[in-house]
Write a structure and sequence with these properties.
With 294 residues, the protein is α+β, with helices and mostly antiparallel strands. The protein is 35% helix and 26% strand. Pfam families: NifU.
Length: 294
């Protein structure tokens, strides 16, 4: 079922509501400890009031009401806060990974949920990541981190290992997933790109996001984003055409497989950019200098 456009437009606003509330609370600290504590108590009372009302709505509804409400990311987060979510942590993490599997597959990889220890530690195994793409590890971490943290905020750590059959098996430290992903002194910042939802299958479009030129194409139902740069001719991909899964550079004619991390001939590859739904809004993750405004 399609969501009303007004709701989709407000998703990005509500995603940052927690940060805005904390900023307001911090500003109350200038009035002294007593004023700060009163503000905190006010927030607790309001949260408890709305929680009690939400619980009555869920309890008074039919058996499938909570399930339907949990399908909305914003409402699901409120159900989690008040202990009303119909699914346990294992189901929520499993469903979250299922939602990002098409994206992982676009980078030649997949992920298995091994176990959730003590309800707080998630253990995962990556499989078949694209070996020729240095950006794949970062994009996979971003996808998994975002999915797990959104679905199960009570998770305190994530342990990820590559599949045992992979000769290059190793461990990705949990802190590399649970902290902001950093690369060469940069942190990943998410930027809403709702226009991606207007792309038709087989269509290619260019976007300028935070000063970075991007190329987004849609293969079937899957949108994929890459930096607008051809590694072969060192030029823009503006005007590129998509034929099935191959994106052709309009200048040098090189073909890149967009569903396999942008792989091209002789080890050349496009640079993929994480593109995921965040509260139903397509968003891309770009590296930003540490300390830059969010």
């Amino acid at each position: 079922m399609d969501r009303p456009e007004a709701l989709e437009e407000n998703d990005a606003q509500w995603r940052t509501a927690g940060d805005r509330i904390q900023t307001l609370l911090d500003s109350c600290a200038s009035g002294g400890a007593a004023a700060y504590e009163r503000a905190r108590e006010l927030v607790r009372e309001v949260v408890a009031l709305y929680g009690a009302g939400l619980e009555r709505i869920v309890r008074a509804g039919d058996p499938g009401l909570a399930e339907r409400l949990a399908a909305d990311d914003l409402v699901a987060s409120l159900l989690l806060v008040h202990g009303l979510h119909p699914h346990d942590v294992h189901r929520r993490v499993s469903d979250a990974l299922d939602r990002v599997r098409p994206y992982l597959g676009s980078h030649g990889g997949d992920v298995d949920l091994l176990e959730i220890a003590d309800g707080q530690t998630v253990r995962l195994a990556f499989r078949g990541s694209c070996k020729s793409c240095p950006s794949s590890a970062v994009t996979l971490e971003l996808a998994v981190q975002d999915a797990v943290r959104a679905a199960a905020p009570e998770i305190s750590s994530i342990e990820v290992v590559t599949a045992p059959a992979d000769k290059a098996a190793g461990v990705i430290p949990a802190e590399s997933l649970m902290a902001h992903v950093k690369s060469n002194g940069h942190a990943a910042g998410w930027h809403p790109l709702p226009e991606v939802g207007d792309l038709a299958a087989g269509e290619v479009a260019g976007f300028l996001v935070s000063g970075t030129p991007l190329l987004v194409c849609r293969v079937g139902d899957l949108p994929l984003a890459y930096r607008d740069h051809c590694p072969v001719c060192d030029d823009t991909l503006a005007g590129a055409q998509l034929r099935e899964t191959l994106l052709g550079c309009p200048r040098c004619g090189t073909q890149f497989d967009v569903v396999h991390a942008g792989a091209g001939p002789d080890g050349a590859h496009l640079e993929p950019v994480p593109l995921l739904l965040r509260d139903a809004v397509p968003s891309v993750a770009l590296a930003e200098p540490m300390g830059a405004p969010a």
